[in-house]
Amino acid sequence: MTGPPHPALRLPTDSAIVRRFLALYLPCLATDRLRRMEPDLPADRPLATWAPSGNRQVLVAVDQVAATAGLRPGQALADAQTIAPHLLLRPADPEGDARALHALALWARCYTPLTAVDPPDGLLLDITGCDHLLGGEAALLRDALAQLQRAGITARGAVAGAAATSAALARARGDNPIAVSGIEAAVAAPLPLGPALRLPPTMLADLARLGLRRVCDLLDQPRGPLARRFGQELLDRLDAVTGQRRTAIRPVLPPPDVAVVQDLLEPIITRTGIDAVLDRLLDALCARLRQAGLGARRVVLLAWRVDGMVQEVAIGTGRPVREAAHLRRLFAERLERLEPGLGFERMALEARATEPMAAGTQVGLGIDGRRDAATAEALAQLLDRLAQRLRVQRIASIASHWPERSVAALGPHATPPVMPVGWAAAALPVLLLRRPAPLEAMVALLPDGPPSLLRWHGGTHRVHWAEGPQRLEPEWWRDRPGLLRRDYYRVELASGARLWICRTGPPEATRWLLHGHLP
Q1: Which residues on neighbouring strands pair with residue 409, listed in sequence order?
Q2: What is the side-by-side strand order in the sheet with 294-305?
Q3: In this structure, are strands 21-25 and 47-53 parallel, antiparallel, or unpaired?
Q4: Does 338 lie in the same domain as 455?
Q5: Residue 439 has pLDDT above 90, yes or no
C-alpha cells in the first residue's frame, strides 16, 4: 500500500478560486458497452445499433470500424447494410447506455468527488485542486484515458477553465488539449459549431446556409439578430463555451462531509486484505471526524475494481459515531457483498451524513433519567448492529381514534412524543394490521349483531364468543368524503384464535374486514 490516505478535497465557495474541469468524450459508448457485454464479437467486423424512426429504421450509434467503412448515425439501415454487408447490428438501448454512463461517472470519483454525466456520451469532472495527486493535469488526463482504454472504452479528453469549454474541446479535437484558464473564447473560436455547441440539426443547417460554421463566425455577428432568429438558447450555449457564462455541473453524488482514500500497489482479493485496508481507513476516518468535531451517521465503503467497476457497502447509525471498533462491527457482515473479481486497486471511506458531536462520551438515548451514559451508548450500538439485519422501529402514540392513525413508526433512537390523554385506555389489538384484510365470508344472525361463522385462511371457523359493536366514525376534518364508518367486534373462534374484526358499508353491500389479533 502507498502512503497514508488523503482526505477528499473540500474547497470553499470563493469566486476567486480558479476552477478547472476535465471533460471525457466517449464517442463509441453504446458499441463499446456491447463489446464488453459480448466479448466474443469479432473485433474486425463493424458494429452498430439501430432503432425505428417513423416508418424507417436508422442507425443510432456506430463503432470506429463502422465509421471507417463510411457508416454514420442517422443513416438508413438498408443503406448501411448495402455499404457494409458484414455489419453486426444490435437494437439501441438508451437506458442501458445511460446506466453505463452513470457507472462511469461513479468510477471517475477516484479522481475527484465532483463528477457529473454529460449525456449522452460524456463526463465532466471538477478537478480543481485534485490534479497534484497524480502529478498534474496532464498526468491525470493521461491516467483517465489509459484506464478507459484498458476497459475497452474509446475516449478523448480535454481540460479547461469552464465545463462547457472542456466538453467542446474534447468533442471537437482529438489531441486531448489542456487550455489555461481565461482564454476560453480564444480556444473555442476555431471549433465547428456541431460538436462545440451541440445544436439541433435543423438549426445547424440554417446557420450553415448563412455561412456560420464555426464559433468565431457567431462571435463576429451582432447578438440581437441571432437571438431573434435562433432564440436565446443559441446565445446561452455560445456564452457557456466561451467562458462568458459559467455553468455549474450536477455531481452524480454530493461530495462527502469527510472522506479518506487508499490506493493499493497491488490489487487485493482476499477478505483478510480487505479487512486490513478497512481497518486503516476507519482509523483515519475517525481521526478526521474527531478533528472536525463530527460524528458519522452514514458511512459508505467504496471499492474500485481493476476492470473499472465500483462497488459500495453502506452502513447507518442511529446516533453520531466516531468509534472505529463500532463501525468495524457494523461493516463485518456486509463485506460479504463485495465481489473482488480480479481485485480492488483503490478503496475509500466516505461519511456522507454527519452531525456535530462534542468531545468525550456520547450522550444517552434519553429513554429515562436513570440510564447512565455508558449503558445508553451500549444500547445505541446494539440497536445499530440489529438494524444491519432487521428493521428496528419504535412505536409512537398519535392522538387519533381511527386505528390506522393511532400509532406511528419512529426510528429506534427517536424520542417518542407525549402519550395523548386516554390513548392507553383504547382496547386495541396487540398486532394491528397496516391495512384491514377482507374476510371471505361471514354469517351474522342479526343485522347489527356479531358474526356466528366466518371463513379465514381457507377454512370455516365458528365464533365461540363475541363482544361489540364499537362504532367508529371517520375523522371528517382529514378524511376524504364518502369514507364509511366501521363497527368493530372482538371475537374468539372455536380454535382459540382471538381477532379484531369490523363491518363496513351499507346493509346491501356489507363488507367484513380483519384488522388485528387480540392477546
Answers
A1: 395
A2: 6-7, 258-268, 344-356, 294-305, 310-321
A3: unpaired
A4: no
A5: no
